[in-house]
Design goal:
Its EC number is 4.2.1.136, 5.1.99.6. By secondary structure, this protein is of the alpha/beta class. It has 2 domains: about 210 residues, Rossmann fold; about 260 residues, Ribokinase (UDP-N-acetylmuramoyl-L-alanine:D-glutamate ligase). Helices cover about 40% and strands about 15% of the residues. It contains 19 helices and 19 strands. The protein has a 10-stranded mixed sheet, with helices on both faces. Strands 3-2-1-4-5-6-7 form a 7-stranded parallel sheet, with helices on both faces. Helix 2 crosses helix 4.
Length: about 500
């Protein structure tokens, strides 16, 4: 499912009309009717429906929605929030059809009029503003949006909640807080931004027959269950433990032994054939009882943390490093040297990211894949960019960093963005706020380590790992856990249910 900017969406519309030969009036009809089909399961025929229409295509979709509902016997009222001269082209055509079918258009006069209609409505259809808005909404629409957000009516937005930017980078906006948003053809970038996604409410994508085109130099794809089922390797009946990868996890310290234990167990639960934990002697006894299936590699330590030393990694297919290691300089020197020396795919997380922050040049020169898995705070530490700016521009920041440093970047968050060195981006669609707990990242690292050792492309392996990790949390919340009591170890135990569903 392609994720688009406003400019890309306009280009897809243009190609559909000019190259595909599809009339714009037909596309608007398709959009309105498709949205109504998605609305029907959530609306009651006895309820009154208020459709708020603006200028442009979004308003035109609103007229189609209103006419379709009216002819199906619903109680529909339309309020036009712009002067008549702003209803042009296809929107004007569908306004006339609405009138031809006996509909009435109430033209906006003042906010008291809107307040009265809103208080009488059970359902509000927001077709005021589309994807073309930039910056703050002008009056009187700004006041209307505020009034919509004050009433208790079920609010359904067409394509995008009015007032919300389609693209990343906008920080000042006032937008409709929708209960449902029915997105036309492709999700817009803002759907996956931390500041914007809550405005969408529950969302679905409706298809209207637009031209298919890969418009961007690096694709952006929302990664869903169908993608996981298509790309996740099937285990052969004749496979053995060596078939599914020998992984090494390096981490742990006397104060944080649990981190590596969770990574080890998650890797094994996610299908790794053999997993070895590389850690210091003080940690072995505390983690061995939690993960008896792993083997262990003793590493030199001092004062409860690792020190610089050679490590033979020739027998392993991939390495994960950083979880629970601590941040003292000797441990950091060990990480930097290992990253330079090994010729295997390596995943760097947690404390390991702090270890390599001042030596990113050596990361760029690696020949084998390097995977970094920062959350926004760690990304700020790596880039020198503020957390605020990273949250405003996560797609662009990720793309530039991955390209500049030749890495696969997993920028963790409510919608984790996975970026390859060529700028291709896959966005995870699973997970919930129950994962906002210590240890969730350690579990994810274990899942990802297992995935990158299977027969799939690197970016697909990372996207599948993120999906599986989030899906485990989702299934647990839907059954016997809550977002408050969910633990990282619960997510490990829940992986079995995910693999059964896949």
């Amino acid at each position: 499912m392609q994720i688009v900017t406003a400019k890309e969406m306009y280009e897809i519309d243009r190609l559909t009309i000019e190259k595909g030969g599809v009339d714009g009036k037909l596309l608007m009809e398709n959009a309105g009717r498709s949205i109504v089909n998605h609305m029907l399961p959530i609306i009651d025929r006895t309820k009154s429906i208020l459709v708020l229409v603006g200028g442009g295509n979004n308003g035109g979709d609103g007229f189609v929605i209103a006419r379709t509902l009216l002819t199906d016997g619903y109680d529909v009222l339309v309020v036009q929030l712009v002067p008549d001269y702003k209803i042009k082209g296809e929107a004007a055509y569908h306004k006339q059809l609405w009138l031809n079918f006996g509909g009435i258009v109430h033209v906006f006069q003042d906010t008291s009029m809107i307040r009265r209609y809103l208080l009488d409505a059970d359902i509000v259809v927001d077709a005021m503003l589309g994807i073309g808005i930039s910056g703050e909404v002008r009056q009187p629409l700004k006041d209307v949006i505020g009034l919509v957000n004050q009433v208790e009516a079920l609010t359904i937005s067409v394509d995008i909640p009015s007032g919300l930017p389609a693209d990343e980078g906008e920080s000042h906006f006032e937008a409709v807080v929708a209960d449902y948003t029915f997105i036309v053809e492709h999700p817009k970038m803002s759907l996956f931004l931390e500041s914007c996604s809550p405005f969408y409410g529950k969302w679905e994508v409706v298809k209207i027959g637009l031209f298919h085109s890969n418009l961007s130099s690096g694709s952006r794809i929302a990664w869903r269950e169908r993608d996981v089922k298509r790309t996740l390797p099937k285990r052969s009946r004749n496979s053995h433990k060596g078939t599914h990868g020998r992984g090494l996890v390096i981490g742990g310290s006397s104060t944080m032994p649990g981190s590596i234990a969770m990574t080890l167990k998650a890797a094994l639960r996610s299908g790794a054939g053999l997993i070895t934990g590389g850690t210091i002697n003080e940690v072995f006894s505390s983690i061995a009882s939690h993960c008896v299936e792993a083997t262990y590699l003793p590493l030199l330590g001092k004062a409860g943390a690792m020190t610089t030393q050679p490590v033979d990694v020739s027998m392993y297919n991939a390495i994960a490093i950083g979880m629970g290691m601590g941040r003292n300089e000797e441990t950091a020197a060990f990480t930097r040297q290992l990253v330079k020396d090994v010729t295997k795919p390596i995943l760097i997380d947690a404390d390991g990211l702090h270890h390599i922050k001042d030596d990113l040049a050596s990361i760029s020169q690696r020949k084998q894949p390097t995977i970094l898995t920062p959350h926004p705070g760690e990304m700020a530490m790596l880039t020198g960019i503020s957390v605020r700016e990273i949250l405003l521009h996560p797609f662009e920041v990720s793309k530039q960093f991955a390209y500049e440093h030749n890495v696969y970047l997993v920028l963790k968050g409510p919608h984790t963005i996975i970026t390859d060195p060529n700028g291709n981006q896959l966005v995870n669609t699973t997970g919930n706020q129950g994962l906002a707990k210590g240890g969730s990242g350690d579990v994810l690292s274990g899942v990802l380590l297992a995935m990158i050792m299977q027969e799939q492309s690197m970016i697909e392996a990372l996207a599948n790992g993120c999906f599986i990790h989030g899906k485990s949390a989702d299934l647990l919340i839907s059954s016997h856990r809550s977002t408050e009591d969910l633990l990282a170890t619960d997510v490990i135990d829940g992986l079995a249910s995910v693999f059964r569903t896949l």
